[in-house]
Amino acid sequence: MVDHLLTSDRKTKFYTGIENLQSFCNVHDICKPYIMNKWQDPKRTLLGGGYKRNFKKKVTKLWRKPKLSSEDKLLLTLMKLHLGLMEEDLAHHFGTSTTHVSNTFITRIKVLSLVLRNIVFVPNQGQLNFT
């Protein structure tokens, strides 16, 4: 999806609010180490949520590789933030369910707030009252 929508700096600015495609890629590269998809982590042993434990003490994966790449998930999140699109609309554009869109958005927002909190200026209450 990223390849189809973000073909120029102008479109990148329109869809995401980020100035250019290179900056989008930089944000993705910064966030990528903090994002681990369940299917990429074979050592993870969840009971019930993603793995099913049977009586032979075997761990079996119950999900498939996700349709959306990590770039697509970041694009989805930024489109929701910048354009204010609803989850059903995003689900239609990205070919996934509204539940997946919601879960992706929540996860990526947490990662973005963790990673970008040092570069986003938030004034304190005194500064807000003064201005």
Describe this structure in words.
By secondary structure, the protein is mainly α. It has a domain at 1-37 and 68-119. 53% of the residues lie in helices and 5% in strands. The protein is built from 7 helices and 2 strands; from the N terminus they run H-H-H-E-E-H-H-H-H. The protein has a two-stranded antiparallel ribbon.
Shape: globular
Distance between the termini: 42 Å
Give the tally of β-strands.
2
Mean pLDDT: 81
Strand order of the largest sheet: 1-2
Radius of gyration using CA atoms only = 18 Å
Order of helices and strands: HHHEEHHHH
User: Strand fraction band?
Assistant: under 5%
InterPro entries: Transposase_HTH_dom
Protein name: Transposase Helix-turn-helix domain-containing protein
Pfam family, one: HTH_Tnp_4
Domain Transposase Helix-turn-helix: 67-107
Main attributes of the structure:
131 residues, mainly alpha, two-stranded antiparallel ribbon, 7 helices
Give a brief rundown of this model.
With 131 residues, this protein is mainly alpha-helical.
Topology:
Elements: H1 2-5, H2 9-16, H3 21-31, E1 51-53, E2 59-61, H4 70-83, H5 87-94, H6 98-116, H7 125-130
Antiparallel strand pairs: 1-2
Helix pairs in contact: 4-6, 5-6
